[in-house]
Design brief:
Length: about 160
Amino acid sequence: MKKLLNTVLSASLLAASFTAIAEEAKGPTLFERIGGEPVAREIVSDIWDNHGKNPIVKNRFQYSDPVYVKQKVYEIFAMATGANVEYTGQDMKTTHAAMNISETEFNAVVDDIMLALDENAIAQQEKNEILAILWSVRPDVVNSNVTTQALAPAKAQHAH
């Protein structure tokens, strides 16, 4: 049932994303509506700062080059929101394959991104569209086989 619910939710969000993209073709892109490059770069900087404060994911970034990571995140954020920017990194699946990212970590990253959008006064419609984009890449980022003891059923924790 949970898998079916996730599939339906994923399909709904992906459909919303495609609908938003189709609507944007008629007017300003999502990238333009959020304020273009200056605001997008500020959002990316705030995402980096939020990750550094987030106990769930901060260790993932401690040895990363902030200039490099921010540039790649800016590129993919800009491209995904309709800017004419080339993303020069690897695809999401390749980039995250060996990281074994859990649902908890993915959700923490999404929370950090949503906080950065709030910090930059991004309107709800645009936040919803960005959330749909994030949700659409979830299958390429999350390793569905990764779990934690805290998330495991109670009897599985005591099976040893």
